[in-house]
Design goal:
CATH topology: CBS-domain
Strand order of the largest sheet: 1-8-7-6
CATH architecture: Roll
Distance between the termini: 5 Å
Largest sheet: 4 strands, mixed
Shape: elongated
Number of helices: 6
Radius of gyration: 16 Å
Structural class: alpha/beta
């Protein structure tokens, strides 16, 4: 059985997550999130994640006409919590808890987006560890 401290965030990261371009309208962002059943979505410029939008962020836009006037870049949280793919899972889970945030963007050595790691992913890892199913 694998030691919990040896598990990296990459093992539980959702690879190549659904993303939106920084110029996407808030209406588009909401549609993409709803269609794909995600609560956090990275905002990209090229291959880099430059921000993140959560389901909670969208709640301020109840009027769809108003939402069409703004872009993902206007609403996103800039400089999202970012970790490298080989970071120990326990460190990432601790930081999510400490900062009271729901997700981290996972990058490779070049800083390119590899995936997203959420609190749900952390719970799934914990369940596997507790059940003894981590090899």
């Amino acid at each position: 059985m694998k030691n919990f401290e040896d598990i990296t965030v990459e093992e539980y990261t959702t690879p190549s997550p659904i993303t939106v371009d920084e110029l996407a309208s808030i209406t588009e962002v909401a549609e993409v999130m709803k269609k794909n059943g995600v609560r956090h979505i990275p905002v990209k410029s090229g291959d880099k994640a430059i921000g993140i939008i959560s389901e909670r962020d969208l709640k301020v836009f109840t009027n769809s006409e108003y939402a069409k006037k703004f872009t993902a870049k206007d609403l996103m949280t800039e400089e999202p919590f970012e970790v490298m793919f080989n970071t120990p899972l326990v460190d990432v889970a601790f930081k999510l808890s400490e900062k009271k945030i729901g997700s981290a963007v996972v990058t490779d050595e070049s800083g390119d987006l590899m995936g997203i790691f959420t609190v749900t992913d952390a719970l799934n890892a914990l369940i596997e560890v507790l059940r003894g199913s981590v090899e």
